[in-house]
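Model it.
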Amino acid sequence: MQILAALVAGLVFGIGLIVSGMANPAKVLGFLDLAGPWDPSLALVMAGAIAVGLPAFALAKRRTTSLLGTPLNLPRNAALDRRLIGGSLLFGVGWGLAGFCPGPALVAFGMKEPKAVMFVIAMLAGMALYELFESARTRRKPPLAARTGEI
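Modeled.
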């Protein structure tokens, strides 16, 4: 049942991206180009997503399991650190240069959009580099108990 729910959610998300035009990088770049003919439609899509997401997350915060009975593991950390800010900046620059973020890129990849193919390859390479650097970083860092003197 969980796999079916994930499939339906993915299909609804993908169809929504196609219908709204957000799988088209030109549409996104038209929103980001404030000096040219600005396209506000992405703002309307975002507002619609926020209108749906806010009540859903408010409900999820009060629950410990999903509607299908699986545990809800929502992030609890609200700290703004340099890694979060740096990652956000990197995401924004990539989004502005390519006109894609991961969800729409995967939808456009499925539609065989050549720019999306290149973006997905670059995205996967970036994810692999992150894993490589993160594993090297965690190997160098001693366990938290050793750093705080709790051993």
